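Sample entry (458 residues):
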Amino acid sequence: MQKPEAFWELLKVIFCKIQDERSDVVKFYVSAGERQGLNGQLKAKARIDTLFEEVRAQYPQIFKASEQIELAPQVLSYIVTQLQMYSLLNSDIDVKGKAYEEIVGSNLRGDRGEFFTPRNICRMAVEMLDPNERQLILDPACGTGGFLIIAMNHVVDRINKGELAKWGDADRALKTASQRIDHFLTNNIIGIDLNPNLVKAAKMNMVMNNDGAGGLFQANTLASPATWVEELRSRDILGRVDVLFTNPPFGSKIPVDDPAILEAYDLGHTWSYDAQADAWVMGEGIQRSQPPEILFIERCLKLLKPGTGRAAMVLPDGILGSPGLGYVRQWLLKHAIVLASIDMHPDTFQPSTSVQTSLLIFQRKTDADIALEDAAGAQRDYEVFMCLANHIGHDKRGNVLYLRDPDGNEIVDEVPQPIREYEGGRLISRTQVTRRKTVDDNTSQIAEVFREWLAEQN
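Predicted structure, serialized as tokens:
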């Protein structure tokens, strides 16, 4: 098979593995005897095909009713034997995320500015905004769902810890937490992406990480909401999002040049600089084209809930510093409070791209706030959290970097790690101390200091 076809077949098998882990009867296996002969391989394939029928029925939005596993019996048997010894649902989230995007990146990523956000940057953004189960969480350019999965697991973890502390009994806590988690995943996680293959891949990724795949939609976020699919339109998300995370596609090679889209945005219009007033003025005409990241700024802000909605957005540094884009900064400062600007390391997106970026955190102002500042002729003064993420855990080749002592030896720490196991049929949660090399990464410290700073501001 060619790589794309092989990729989709592999994901069908992965889905069967997950379906098996969620059921009481084990079907996802190939015994040593079955591997040896064609009859055994055919028997194993029939068993896996039965699993895939269950998968098709459960995920009609991902798999068509006519789809089958197209792998030869001997190939399918080999893949199953390689996967059957692992638990995908209980594996570390970062390991699954990295492995999944390694596969997806080499098969699905196109030439449309699609670069996956590193796990630690996603986690930093999520920890900075600290979402909870009552908030509507959105990524309008979700890709394979990196931000959403980190945010989802952040909230699920909080729910599980809260219930365990409340009841003190793991079994009882698991039952009560599952109801809250199901409600949260069904109603409060939404992802949108233009690339239908990435949306499909994101749904598969979500299923491997607690689920929430029902909230993912294929649509052009920048287009009029009237063009979105009915299920997404019915969510009525404009002006209702509490927390937004995104790394939109950016670059002059993928401009938005549809007049119907451009005229709907202030930032899609022409702007001129008035030197006397030291301000940018919006004109009647529209731009011939505009990089998508500029329009995404306006769309993201309009999606947020006025007064309280907050966004964490990865942007190229040109938007924050280029003289010719002063009108973008002026528009943003008029409509939002900038809470933080994190200058990312040049190697953040390496080895994929060397583009220099920042993570911008902002909160939407209310119309009353904007009107008040217009009447006063000046915007209110406030502090902005600024820092440099100069240790991001890897080099330009993507190799992991570890902290070292003055003699050059890698530093090893003892880290408490929560584990869950069964004793006498009862689920027991305990903490186990493991020894682990310390990654040279300061993103978690940045999030911690930001939360402390934010608490002081309030």
